[in-house]
Write a structure and sequence with these properties.
alpha+beta, 2 domains, disordered N terminus, 483 residues, elongated, 4 strands, 68% helix, 9% strand, Outer membrane efflux proteins (OEP), 4-stranded antiparallel beta sheet
């Protein structure tokens, strides 16, 4: 079975944990090998279908039990936030409406193959009565019309509508991935702000402790009152940093529900970040293992923009064909059935004497329109060339986006390692200087400088880790595999 294939190529549990979410970049390199095997055995299966099935298999392996109705009063996981956003956000609701609108347009295009039936009735009143007419006259009729031949315009309109539907489906998939990216970034921003508050509280507590210790030294005559002022200044700066981080957290907490389609005033609690806890315990992170060229090839095969752009090209090609067909005649059949209702209501007999019917065909085509049709054909042709040019540039743009995201992730991975070393060294330096200061072998300036370095190292560590998590997500988005 296809669902078991990723396991057969050596996918272990650690690989499944490589990247937050159900699709892991570390698995993609293994899937590329599997992709070649599948193509060798199933030459008729499109490449995109194979990739989608492979990613679906990975998704099923890493997926948890499906979450039902999300309880907003409980801490939310990232998956739950994404679920709420996909259901309630304005962008996804509009995407579903756009899809429904386009489906109606397909139905309307299909309806052109059927005849049209109209009913008509009229009432006339006149003070002048001629032969065969009364002051009040009633008529009732039915009229049917059917296009016998239009040189393929109906077929073209129907095909164009279906291509537009395909483009809408692909556009909605891009909208979905954009929303998932925004929600993920906002979710990690909340987690980052929470961790920064913990850092600020830790640094402030240490500053307050040092300030009190310096006051004790002043009372003992070891230090002067100016040293207390210096320590209090440091404490005030740390308190201000805590205030700024608290304000940033409130903004992040208002941004997240807005993306989920909720009121920004709704306070959402987020679940504890297990990935950050694991990083703190292990001191290491998992790194991307897929080669950059392979990542680009996956993006070129899976990004929904390519299918959308191809559908747009086909739709405009049909639009150009339809514009050219406007020059050709259109053959219609008409049937009319009428009843002189007023005469029949007076006589109440011989209904056939008061009814009539007619049938005929009509051929309509434009002899002269001042060049409108010709200009319309030229306009659509130019628009088609623009779309084709944009499509040719899309591949280069996607390749650039993947390369940028890939390099950013590599930089973020290195930054995490550096920040971890900074914290270790800064803490060691602070502990040593703190001990020397307590026995009078270090001056206050050294202690405050060590505190500043330690606080900056802790802040850098938090920022580096969540920048790394966001960089992972952006690479998945650039590759078109964000789920």
């Amino acid at each position: 079975m296809l669902g078991s294939m990723p396991i057969s190529v050596g996918m272990d549990k650690e690989m499944l944990l490589m990247i937050h979410g159900k699709i892991k970049l570390a698995v993609l390199s293994k899937l590329a090998v599997l992709q070649g095997t599948l193509r060798a055995g199933f030459q008729k299966v499109p490449l995109k279908t194979i990739l989608i099935l492979q990613f679906a298999a990975v998704f099923c392996i890493g997926a948890q039990e499906p979450v039902g109705e999300v309880d907003l009063s409980q801490p939310l996981t990232l998956e739950q936030c994404i679920q709420v956003g996909l259901e309630r956000s304005t962008s996804m609701r509009n995407a579903r409406l756009n899809l429904a609108i386009q489906e109606l347009r397909v139905k309307n295009a299909r309806a052109q193959y059927f005849p049209q039936i109209f009913s008509n009735g009229n009432y006339d009143f006149s003070d002048r009565v001629d032969f065969g007419f009364e002051p009040e006259n009633y008529n009732l009729g039915l009229r049917g019309q059917y296009t016998l031949w239009d040189n393929g315009q109906r077929e073209g309109g129907f095909a164009q509508a279906k291509e537009s539907l395909t483009a809408t489906v692909s556009r909605n998939e891009r909208t979905k991935q954009d929303l998932i990216l925004d929600i993920t970034v906002a979710y990690y921003d909340v987690l980052k702000r929470q961790e920064l508050i913990k850092v600020s509280e830790q640094i402030l507590a240490r500053s307050q402790e040092n300030t009190q210790r310096i006051r004790d030294f002043v009372e003992a005559g070891t230090l002067i009152p100016a040293d207390v002022a210096t320590a209090e200044l440091r404490e005030a700066n740390d308190e201000l940093s805590l205030l700024n981080n608290s304000n940033s957290l409130q903004i992040a907490q208002a941004t997240l529900p807005r993306l989920l389609g909720l009121d920004p005033g709704v306070l959402l609690a987020v679940s504890v970040d297990e990935s950050y806890q694991l990083y703190q315990e292990r001191g290491t992170i998992e790194r991307v293992e897929i080669p950059i060229e392979e990542a680009i090839q996956i993006a070129l095969s899976t990004r929904p923009e390519f299918q959308e752009r191809q559908a747009q090209i086909k739709s405009q090609e049909w639009s150009l064909t339809l514009a050219k067909l406007q020059r050709w005649p259109r053959l219609n059949a008409d049937v009319d059935y009428n009843v002189n209702l007023d005469d029949y209501l007076r006589e109440r007999e011989n209904f056939s004497d008061f009814r009539s019917w007619s049938a005929g065909v009509s051929l309509n085509f434009t002899l002269f329109d001042g060049g409108i049709l010709g200009n319309r054909v030229k306009e659509i042709g130019m628009q088609l060339e623009q779309t084709r040019e944009n499509a040719s540039d899309l591949e280069r743009s996607v390749a650039l986006a993947v390369r940028q995201a890939y390099l950013t992730l590599q930089r973020s991975e290195i930054a995490v390692d550096i920040s971890k070393k900074q914290v270790t060294n800064a803490q060691l330096s602070l502990d040593v200087i703190q001990g020397r200061f307590d026995v009078g072998k270090a001056i206050l300036l050294e202690l405050l400088d060590a505190q500043t370095s330690y606080a900056q190292a802790l802040t850098n560590e938090v920022n580096a880790f969540y920048d790394y998590k966001i960089a992972q997500t952006r690479l998945q988005d650039a590759m078109g595999v964000l789920q």
